[in-house]
Specification:
mainly alpha, two-stranded parallel sheet, flat
């Protein structure tokens, strides 16, 4: 449903974020996301799952800006 209902660079809202699966899918499809979760245990699980993907995105952005065309 994310691929069909949200354009690239769009924002996905998940009001029951849980372990962050929706966020992972959104990131893999070049989309942003907002995740809402009340259970602090699930928030920590989601943070751990999302961290590698968020760090990779930062590296990709930094890498694109630092390339040299000499």
């Amino acid at each position: 449903p994310i691929k069909a209902c949200c354009p690239e660079d769009g924002i996905v809202l998940d009001m029951f974020f849980g372990a962050g699966t929706t966020g992972l899918v959104a990131l893999k499809q070049n989309k942003n996301f907002i995740g809402i979760e009340l259970n602090s245990e699930y928030i920590e699980i989601a943070k751990k799952r999302l961290k590698p993907y968020l760090e990779q995105i930062k590296l990709d952005v930094v890498g694109k800006g630092s390339e040299s065309n000499d």
